[in-house]
Amino acid sequence: MRTSRIRTAALAATTAALALATLTACGSSDGGDDAKGGAKRGGAVVSDKADGGTSGGSGSAEGATVDAAKGSGSSEGTTVGASKGNGSSGAGKGTSAGAGQGAKASSAGVRACDGQEISYSVVHRFAKQRGEHLLITATNADSKPCYVTSFPSVMLGDTVSVLPHSTKDNPGGGKALTLKPGGKVYAAVNLFTDSARTHTSSDLSIALQDHTGDTGPGVGQEAFDAKGVPSKFTWSTADVTNWNTAKPYNF
To answer: Keyword Signal, does the record have it (predicted)?
Structure first.
């Protein structure tokens, strides 16, 4: 009886071992199917527990991918987007939209300032001193950017001749200087009294020039001193510097 019980116990143990091996083999086979399914849903291995069966639909796929990606922060973000089916497409949409808008803005370019959007101020600096000049400040008062180039077209007082470009000016007048809304550029009218024949005035006319030298509409201005008082200036000859983003003779 004792021997029979040992044999019976041994047989039962053997049977249990075989059953366990069979179950293990089945579990391994199911894991392989899950790996294939996971690859189709963003490359993550989806477990039976996370998948919730084949009837889980898109919601179970999302939960499964998150569960499988817990081991890596970067993997989680990638696999969640892939499982949802709209993460990567959403990113693509955002990228293409941004690039398209940038390309459109770049291809359209910035328009040239026509003078209607520009406001001017003129300050008479270093009166009757060496380096005497009129500082012209042009401000873009529009809500859109535009650009200026070359130097302003200036007539002083009641004269009808446009002042020439300064021969001592720095090069670069051919560049287009973009003025954002509220942006400023500067130019200087150099005043010289090198002969007995002189002119005196506090008025001048300013207009913009384009790359071809064409001049837009002129705007009448009055020169003021540093205290905001109208200031008369005297000249026998004068010339103009290029537009610049920094104040000329700012010393």
So the answer is: yes
Q: Where are the domains of the chain?
A: 2-108, 118-240
For the domain covering 118-240, report its CATH number. 2.60.40
Residue 1's identity, in one-letter code, is: M
Cα–Cα distance, 138 to 183 (Å, whole number): 8
Q: Could you report the per-residue pLDDT of 88-142, keeping only the tens digit for each?
A: 443 343 333 333 332 223 324 899 999 999 999 999 999 989 899 999 999 999 9
